[in-house]
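Sync notes, pocket subgroup
Present: LS, DG
LS reminded everyone that the earlier model was apo-only. Rerun requested with iron/sulfur cluster included. Inputs:
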Amino acid sequence: MDFGFSLSPSSAVNLDNTDMSLYERLCEREPGAKTCMACGSCSATCTVSAINGMSVRKVILGLQRGQFRDVEKMLSRCMLCGKCTMVCPRGINTRHLILELCRLYGSKEGEL
Amino acid sequence: MIYQGKQKIWSDYQKDIPDDHWFYVRSCIRQSFFPGSEKFFMKIVRDDLGKDIYETEHHTTCGGIAYHCDTIPQETAMTIVARQFALMTEAGYENLVASCITSFGNYCETIETWREFPELEARVREHLWKACRREFKVPKYVAHASDLVYKFRNEIAARAKFRLVDHETGEPLRIVEHIGCHYSKMFPHKGVGGAEYPCVLSGMAEAWGGEVIDYPERRHCCGFGFRQYLVRANRGYSLSNTHKKFESMEPYHPDCIITNCPGCPFFLDRWQYVISEMEGKTYGQDGHGIPVLTYEELAALVLGYDPWDMGLQIHQVGLEPLLDKMGVPYDPSKKYLGLNEKEIMKPGLPTVLKCC
Ligand code: SF4
Ligand code: SF4
Ligand code: SF4
């Protein structure tokens, strides 16, 4: 029956049913990913963040929530300058993290 | 020391509710949504419990819906509220009890605004005098009608004819409680249990024998949200909100939902039909929905009043599965007979949702 309006899909994340496989594979290649405390220093420093919304913090969070499509889109926005690596208080090699993730998504380095 | 500290913290969440002498203000929409609720509230409090509770036919809407839809400014809403206060003062009462959560929020908001900005109160007094030559005292105490039923929950339990217990197995019924956002999310100290531990409805359900379900989206809005529903293009938001709550409570198999707001029971009830037509999905047993009741209706059921007398046939989701579990007798052939057995017409049945 058409009521003239419809249900929108829920944005709730159910962590019990989340596919964490990609996150786990990333952690094997870049164990630093596990130590991220979501402080956001990387996003605050990122040159392109204000222009295109790139954020390493969001990339890591997206993987933990199984939002692979959003993460994939985000990766293509990084210019691999490495500024985020310099500011990360946990000393995570964020640039390496992004590169490894690009490899996992199955494309040539930096080309996603 | 630590125990005393805890007691002090908990006392901040408590609310003193005066025992007697109330001026009652009805809701503008509840009487058409759930016509028996207010009538049975008065019956229970006045006739069964013997309290002094007064209402006047000069009372009007509180203006809350227009205010929350941005159609009238706050000053107008406050002047309408001031007029209700004037009716209370003229009748010689100092405690005001509101049937509607939106009104309750509106009264609290008005009084808090005047406390912060006394010049606004002076202006509203002037508006009221110019408009209708009335004066008022600010109520000493503002309560929501569910506060009163909560206060008297044990008296009601002592007179209960039926309990929230499966009469065949003796197991407590699983109850979902939904508290209207404007009850304690706006002014936490005005609600029993504050915004973190609101126990106004769970206290009733437990006193009457039920078991309250804690589910992930328990404190999520029912979906009314005023403009979300009233503007047709936004109605999908409202529906999706309610849908989220149902998906979240479904695994706990609730036997019924109780609410204390005009909007919540309406949307939790009617949207079950819309979801069933859109998605083919129902949330109750064997194609039924989950019965949704107001706390007054539940109190009246527990006290043994006839379900059809209190207008339970107006609900979209059939109440029969709940009545059967509680062991409340009812005559299915009288479902659509109104007062004095007058025919009130039979609605068409939905295609998916089982309603009787
Ligand atoms: S700066 Fe480091 S710790 Fe902070 S959010 Fe970014 S990656 Fe995580
Ligand atoms: S490496 Fe990428 S994410 Fe990090 S600062 Fe540079 S552009 Fe931003
Ligand atoms: S109807 Fe909905 S928006 Fe209004 S108070 Fe109740 S829960 Fe909140």
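DG: The radius of gyration of chain B is 21 Å.
LS: The interface with chain A takes residues 217, 232-237, 239-240, 243-244, 247-248, 274-275, 277-279, 351 of chain B (CB under 8 Å).
Action: DG to write up.
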